[in-house]
Amino acid sequence: MAVYSLLITHSPFEITKTVAAQAFASELIAQGQTLKNIFFYGEGTHHANALVQLPSDEYQWHHRWQRIQTMAQCSLLVCVTAAVKRGLLSEIEANEAGIDMATITSPFEQAGLGEFFTQLHKCDQLVQF
């Protein structure tokens, strides 16, 4: 079985791409493949925004990533530089900025590009959405 890493660079509001990426991840899991990590970069960092409150009749992409993470036991890595540029902060950055609330919460975690590249050495396939 192959080991996969996904790279998400599109906004979650590009719903067709979001659904495709999540369906691909779910299919990997169903086939018994290993999904090592999902790295959110650029506009893709918005997928990790815990403050987005979607109406109940809309596609719940944030919760779907959480379910995929639970099923695959993979890392949901958010590029720290790209996230901060977009106002998305982990608890550490929020505290440093004197803000009471983080926008990036578990199971999403911030990581640098170097960490992502290091983890790619443990993967057979990288698929970008």
UniProtKB/TrEMBL annotation:
Keywords: Cytoplasm, Transferase. The keyword Hydrolase does not apply. The keyword Transcription does not apply. It is found in: Cytoplasm. PANTHER family: PROTEIN YCHN, SULFURTRANSFERASE TUSD. Belongs to the DsrE/TusD family. This is Sulfurtransferase complex subunit TusD. It comes from Salinimonas profundi.
